Amino acid sequence: MATSSAWHSRWSVPGSWSRSSCRHSDDGAPGYCLPGLITTEDIAITALGLTPRPRCWELTPTGALQPLWLHNLTMEGDREAPTAAELLAFAATLPVEEREKLLAAMHPAPLAPEPVGEGTVPDPVYRSWADFLAATTTAQRMAWCSRKARRANRPRLMSGPPGLRITASVVWEVLDAAAGRCGDCGSFAVEGRPSGPDGRPVAWAAIGRRIGSLGHRLARFNGGDNDRDNLYWCCLWCNTWPSERRPGATDHGAVV
Fold this sequence. Notes:
By secondary structure, the protein is α+β, with helices and mostly antiparallel strands. The chain is 27% helix and 9% strand. A hairpin with a 5-residue loop joins strand 3 and strand 4.
């Protein structure tokens, strides 16, 4: 479901803002606490007589800041992203407390990646399934799968909690069946999201097709669930932007 153009406007943060490190992301990626920043969503929330809440932010693939939980709404097949009008209409039907909770969690979402250069593309960490298995331990792989299962089991803004909860073993079945290959573009995708020497997140556009992600063939927002047949392995680039799902793609660090 597409978002309205007004709702996925770019986010910008003045350099004078004080940024304090926070760690609110499920995958451990730190963000920046920027209390008091006024956004288009804050205006919408205020219009309903509610009080905007402080936001935490993370780096996008291009190095810009965006709300920390934005990816939880947009990284599923077909995008879990209602329009602003649809979301506000739904919110108006809820009790005040539930409405406030929902509106405080919503964020604008881009429909496509920003058209910027990829910059320097580093060598792949892993070049094949055999390479990945040899370079990692069972414990490391299952810990990674556990983090992805935890994210898949979380409630979504408009679809609530999943009907089925999955375990790390289910995620591993999906990953193993795909031998680490993205089901959309075919790139070998078993790397994690990158971070800098200080542990803070860095731009990942250059290697977006190498980063592994658990996808849903039918988004939970559209009636899909965590059943095994609806889960598939994909790269983070394809899982973030359906418009970028091109079989055989060689950009953004694809490992073919």
